[in-house]
Structure formats: C-alpha cells, structure tokens
Amino acid sequence: MKKISKKVAGFLGLLTLLCCCSVGYAATGGTLSGTIKGPDGAPFRAAFVRVRNVNTKMTMMVLSDKNGQYFTDSLPAGTYEVWATAIGYKCDPARRPDVKVEDGKNQTVGFNMQKSMVEWASMTKYQAGTLLPDAPGKGQFLQECFNCHAFSLMASVGRHDHDGWMQAINLMNVLKVANIKPNIADMAATYLAYAYGPDTTVTPESPAQLPAYQKIKQEGDYFSDDALRIAWVDYELTGDPRDRPGVAKQDKDGNMWFEDRGAGVSAA
Q1: Which of 53, 57, 104, 260 is deepest in the core (most CB within 10 A)?
Q2: 19 phi and psi, to 5 degrees?
Q3: Each residue's pLDDT tens digit, 31-77
Q4: Under 8 Å between Cβ of 72 and 31
Q5: What's the CA gap between 35 and 71, in Å, rounded?
Q6: What are the extents of the domains in the chain?
Q7: In 3-state terms, what secondary structure has residue 191?
Q8: 81, 107 Cβ separation under 8 angstroms
Q9: Could you read off the pLDDT of 205-235 as tens digits, one per residue?
Q10: Which helix (H) or strand (E) holds 20?
C-alpha cells in the first residue's frame, strides 16, 4: 500500500465529504414531468405548465418542448396544484389539485389542450398599447392601472360606465393600496368607460378579432427552442393588498424581497 501525504489525505477527505453532500442534496426533493398534447393528439409545443405548492404558495413555471414534454427542477416534497395554459387554449383537465411530490421521485402528470377563445387577460402591456383604441386617458390607464392590474382588472370587475370605474378606483384609494389623484382617476375612468363600458363597440370580446392582433401575437410559434428551457419561480408575499410593486419584505435570512412587474425579486 502506498503512503499518501497529509495534504493529499486531507484533499481526499474533503472530496469524499463534497461527494456525500452532493449525493445528499441531489436526493432532496422530487420532480414533475409529463406530456402535453394538442386537440389532434399531437405533441403541444410551448404550453406553460404551472406547479403550485398548496402550503407555501411557491409556483414554478416551465414550458413544454417540441415533443410536448416538460420537466421541472427539483421541488420540495409536498402537495401541488398543476395546470397548463396557452394563449387560445384551455387544458383538460382544467387543473390537477392534489399531486404528491416525494423526495427522490418523479411524478408524471399530463394534459390535453383544447381550442379556446384568446382572452384579453393574456395580453402584455405592449400588446395592450397596440390593440386598445386611441382616446384621451389611454396613457393614464396604461401607466396608472395596467402596470399593477394588467387586463385582470377587467376580468375581475367586468365592464362599467364612468361612475362604476370611478368607484373601483376610489376604493383603492380608501384601502390605501393606491394614491391616484382625482384628475388622473377621472381621465382613466373616462377611458375605461370608452374602451370597457357596458355598451362599447370599440373593444371586441377577444383581441384576436382585431386585424392588428396577427402582427403582434405571441402564441406557441413565437417562442424559440432556447426560450422553452426557462424555469420561472414565483414566491407569494403576505397577501396583504397593500403589498404593491416596490414594497419590500424581509425574510428570515435577512433578504429583502420586492415585487417587480408581478414577479418576486430578492436583494440581499
């Protein structure tokens, strides 16, 4: 048997420790994978698959590849909700609410995508600025309302006249989740009543009904193969409606977390 120096022995000991740590870490958590199929049964590319921990509310989002397959990074053991989305489609089943993830194991969950109406709620700010009709107050709406609510505002409260939109805006001021000046509120409400009033004809039910949509759509073929490899993780803050973009919260490790365009970002 050859004799090794203390330095080499120490190195080998450290290497063994690192290997053990690596093996131990790799065994922590589990993964999800599956196949997304289109209406014709063929692989469905660029479906957004969301995996949400029912306890911590952490949500990981990945995309299906050209073979319709998706894979998550390692997930903490627990119970998850899983669903898939794509612009102009809905998934079947709509959601799997009780998926168990176990340490060191992979769980398989698949979905079928069915054709559906393109929703305004799927549009980005750029698309909104392009597709929405031009009228006084559009800039105020995009700047004061869209940055926080996007089109979910319309989906959640419906279409109203000027007074109805003013009530919704004033409620945010009363709850101290916003501080919108009266003149800005009036301009935004005037535009919303024009574009999203109960009897409006300038904004169709679906943005796909507008000719300009075809030039700016971001459906499955919009994403490159490299983009399909992205994994995105959202962490829910307190749930307090006063947690607005730019409001930071400190975690147990001293990191400051704040919202930036709907996504959680940390700063040590």
Answers
A1: 53
A2: -65, -40
A3: 999 999 999 999 999 999 999 999 999 999 999 999 999 999 999 99
A4: yes
A5: 9
A6: 31-118+219-234, 120-205
A7: helix
A8: no
A9: 899 999 999 999 988 888 899 999 999 888 7
A10: helix 6-26
Residues above pLDDT 90, as percent of the chain: 52
Paired tokens of 101:
């993830």
The CATH number corresponding to 31-118+219-234 among 3.30.240.20, 2.40.100.10, 3.30.110.30, 2.60.40.1120 equals 2.60.40.1120
Tokens of 2: 């050859």
CB atoms within 10 A of CB 51: 26
Tokens of 40: 């014709």
Residue closest to 236 by CA, chosen among 27, 54, 81: 54
Q: Which amino acid is at 5?
A: S
> What is the biggest distance separating any 2 CA atoms in the chain, rounded to whole angstroms?
91
Distance between first and last Cα of the chain: 50
Which is nearest to 75 in space by CA: 37, 44, 104?
104
* Nearest one of 157, 83, 88, 81 to 122, comparing CA atoms: 88
- Structure-token pair, residue 199: 């009897």
Nearest to 34 by CA among 90, 106, 127: 106
pTM of the model: 0.72
Q: Which two tokens stand for residue 244?
A: 């607005």
Specify whether the backbone of 13 is left (phi greater than 0), alpha (psi in -120 to 50) or beta: alpha
Contacts 24+ apart (CB under 8 A), 8-14: none
Q: Tokens 């001293």 appear where?
A: 254
